[in-house]
Design goal:
Elements lengths: L2 H13 L6 E6 L6 E4 L2 E4 L13 H9 L2 E6 L5 H4 L4 E5 L15 H12 L3 E5 L8 H8 L4 E3 L20 E2 L18 E3 L4 E6 L6 E8 L2 E6 L19 H15 L3
Parallel strand pairs: 1-4, 1-5, 5-6, 6-12
Antiparallel strand pairs: 2-3, 7-9, 8-10, 10-11, 11-12
Helix pairs in contact: 4-5
Length: 261
C-alpha cells in the first residue's frame, strides 16, 4: 500500500462510527424525585453524580471503566434523542407520592423507546416494590417486549436479621458470568408473555422471576423488579457473602456485549 492510500485508509477509519465509543444514558425524566434541603430543593435518588447510598455513582464508575460515556436524558425520549445512546436505563418511575406532577410513561413514549430497541438499542428497566414505583404506565412500556411487572412483593425482607429472605435462588450465568450470590430486597416479580423473554434471576423460594431479558428486533431488554444496583446495595451495607458489586460488573460487561448500534 502506498503512502497516499495508507493515509486515506486511516482517515476513513477515523470517520467511521467508533464501536467502542458507547454512551449509557440514564433517564432523569420519568424518575425526577426532589427533596428540600437547607438551601432549597434538589434532585436525588438514582443519579450518576450521587455518591451517597441513594446514588448510582459506583455503577457509573464501572460503566466508565469499560469505556462508556455517561449521559442523562431529562426530557421525554424520542427515537432521535435515543439514537445518541447505546444503552438507556429507566429506573423507578415516579408516583404522586414522590413528585406532585410525575411524568408518566405514555403510549408514544413506549413506541419511541421500542423503535429504538428494535433498531439495536439496549434497554434496562428497573422497577421497585409496587408501593414505591408507578407500575401501570411502566407496564405500558414493558408490554412492548412481552414483560409485565406484577403488584406483589417477593423477596420481602423484614429487617437486617433476615437477609437470607432476599437471596436469589437461581442466577443465569450467561448474563452473570461470575455466578455471584445476589441480594434483591422487596421487589416486583416479572411475568414473561413472549417466547423471546426468559428469566435470569429467580426469587429466594424459586417461585417468581425477578429479573429477565427479552430480545426485540435487533436489540434487547434487561428488566429487574428493583433499582437494585444503587450504592447502598452494591456492598455498601450488605453482609460480605453477597456479591452485588460483582453482579453489577457482570451485568455492565454483558450490556456492553449486547450493543450492536
Amino acid at each position: 500500500m502506498n503512502k497516499f492510500l495508507f493515509c486515506a485508509f486511516i482517515i476513513v477509519l477515523k470517520a467511521a462510527p467508533n464501536s467502542f465509543a458507547q454512551t449509557v444514558t440514564l433517564d432523569y425524566y420519568f424518575n425526577h424525585e426532589t427533596h428540600k434541603t437547607k438551601t432549597g430543593t434538589e434532585r436525588f435518588h438514582y443519579l450518576w453524580t450521587d455518591e451517597k447510598d441513594s446514588g448510582f455513582s459506583k455503577w457509573g464508575g464501572w460503566f466508565k471503566d469499560i469505556g462508556f460515556t455517561l449521559d442523562t436524558l431529562a426530557e421525554a425520549p424520542t427515537l432521535a434523542k435515543l439514537n445518541k445512546s447505546s444503552v438507556y436505563i429507566i429506573v423507578d418511575p415516579d408516583t404522586k407520592k414522590e413528585t406532585p406532577n410525575p411524568n408518566y410513561i405514555q403510549e408514544n413514549d413506549a413506541t419511541q423507546i421500542a423503535l429504538w430497541v428494535r433498531s439495536g438499542g439496549v434497554l434496562v428497566l428497573m422497577a421497585n416494590d409496587s408501593t414505591n414505583v408507578e407500575l401501570p404506565h411502566f407496564n405500558t412500556l414493558a408490554a412492548k417486549f412481552g414483560l409485565h411487572f406484577n403488584n406483589d412483593l417477593p423477596n420481602h425482607v423484614i429487617d437486617d436479621k433476615h437477609f437470607k429472605d432476599g437471596e436469589a435462588s437461581w442466577v443465569d450465568n450467561a448474563v452473570f458470568k461470575s455466578n455471584p450470590k445476589v441480594f434483591l430486597k422487596d421487589v416486583s416479580s416479572i411475568s414473561l408473555n413472549s417466547p423471546d423473554a426468559k428469566p435470569v434471576i429467580k426469587s429466594a423460594d424459586g417461585s417468581a422471576v425477578i429479573a429477565a431479558i427479552a430480545k426485540y428486533g435487533k436489540g434487547i431488554v434487561f428488566a429487574v423488579g428493583d433499582p437494585w444496583l444503587y450504592n447502598e446495595y452494591v456492598n455498601g451495607r450488605l453482609p460480605a457473602i453477597y456479591q452485588n458489586d460483582i453482579a453489577a460488573k457482570d451485568l455492565t460487561e454483558w450490556l456492553k456485549k449486547q450493543v450492536k448500534r
